[in-house]
Amino acid sequence: MIYPFSQRFIDILGSVFFIILFFPIMAITAIFIKIVSPNGAVFADIVERVGKDGKKFRMYKFRSMIPNAQDWLKSRPELYKKYQENSYKLDPDPRIIKGGAFIRKYSIDELPQFFNILLGDMSIVGPRAYFPFELNEQVERFPKAKDALKSALSVKPGLTGIWQISGRSKVDFLGRVEMDAKYAKRRSLLYDLMIILKTPFVVITGKGAV
């Protein structure tokens, strides 16, 4: 019972601290996006994500792609099929704006998620939030993921987590869900601290980012 309260306390303090710390970077990023891609919004126009117990929420993320990137992709069936088969990633991705690859590689696009943490939709540490369509399509493709997914969705999604520090885009959907399920069963303040301490190295090196 102590863990949930301790986790929430750390989430609030941590999100406030990092919002203040990274505010200059977030401000510069927002200005840069409007300069290189003036027709779109600063934040990504993405569908809702699936949070704890299947509850949907709006994840805040800097836009690193062209406006209406998902619709653009769906209008190209062959490319969209490749996108699905590659665990919803393209490398290289033709939708990325100038400078967008840098923003994504070093996880700058993820910084606004500290506001999601402050609001209580996310935690600093947890599984990567899933897309609703991703769950439907990938569970059909990987039936073995169904049971693990129940465990993964029993906790709040996180800004960082075991999948995020263990290869990210290099790990397929089934591997990702199994990692998230193991985290949900094992989670503790000590385990969360270990993940947090490993995160800066992954961010600096851009390991597994697409």
Automatic annotation (TrEMBL):
Molecular function in Gene Ontology: phosphotransferase activity, for other substituted phosphate groups
UniProt keyword Lyase, yes or no: no
Domain of life: Bacteria
Transmembrane annotation, as ranges: 12-33
Coiled coil: none
Bacterial sugar transferase domain span: 8-204
UniProtKB keywords: Membrane, Transmembrane, Transmembrane helix
Family: Belongs to the bacterial sugar transferase family.
UniProt-recorded name of the protein: Bacterial sugar transferase domain-containing protein
